[in-house]
């Protein structure tokens, strides 16, 4: 049964992230303002690799970070001949070491390193029916270590199911742009991410709901306004991603991001 459950979970993930014909073009338009040609992107929680493909199509080098062995095998096969993609079979956290993955075999993209997040998110309607069980012990490194080895990224996408703040605790310098997930019932994690980023530099913020790939609002918010928006969300609000850019980059490219969001 575990084998069939894992296989079904992988096939379902591939259908969701690669089965919509126009989604690849949407992703390219959405990320183009923050992932420059010739630049570097870190995809933390690369999962089924649709963002890796988008970043490569935009001409950026990509470091794909993914601790789940099944996804690592897929990514390694797909990008084996692409010198612009480095697949790392690790997780990220505040310090190097090891951690046990909580695996969701039927829905592998919500596997997590955070037992607290699994308990809290699992109690919500959005995760009804999702079950986690002890998975493999995986190596953990940090964003600082990745940057020391691969260079300072232009953009970091972080999608690690409740471990986003832990990942950012392993970053000691500002980066031009990054995104992290928010989920209303556990919004304290997203608020913590904002606090962490503001300790590194001054950022401007926008959000995108679900997989809509549309940024809101048109004019990026400062940290206080972003916190207020998060605190005002009802618990049943849909999840999404928050895009944060250093204040200088945000001002320079605001028009491009708005146009990309509308086209998406």
Question: What does this entry look like structurally?
Answer:
With 264 residues, the protein is of the alpha/beta class. It has a single domain, classed as Rossmann fold (3-Layer(aba) Sandwich), CATH 3.40.50.150. The protein is built from ten helices and eleven strands. The strands form two sheets. The protein has an eight-stranded mixed sheet, with helices on both faces. The chain has a three-stranded mixed sheet with strand order 4-6-5. Helix 4 links the parallel strand 2 and strand 3. Helix 8 runs antiparallel to helix 9. The N and C termini lie far apart (39 Å). The C terminus is likely disordered.
CATH class: Alpha Beta
* Content of β-strand: 15-25%
CATH superfamily: Vaccinia Virus protein VP39
Count all strands and give the number.
11
CATH architecture heading: 3-Layer(aba) Sandwich
Low-confidence stretches: 250-264
Tally the helices: 10
Task: For the largest sheet, list the strands in their spatial order.
Answer: 3-2-1-7-8-11-9-10
Which percent bin holds the helix content? 40-55%
Tell me the domain tally: 1
Distance between the termini: 39 Å
User: Main β-sheet: number of strands, strand sense, barrel status?
Assistant: 8 strands, mixed
The ordered string of helix (H) and strand (E) elements is HHEHEHEEEHEHEHEHEEHEH
Per CATH, what is the topology?
A: Rossmann fold
Mean pLDDT: 88
Protein name: FkbM family methyltransferase
InterPro entries: FkbM_mtfrase, SAM-dependent_MTase, SAM-dependent_MTases_sf
GO molecular function, one term: methyltransferase activity
Domain Methyltransferase FkbM: 43-172
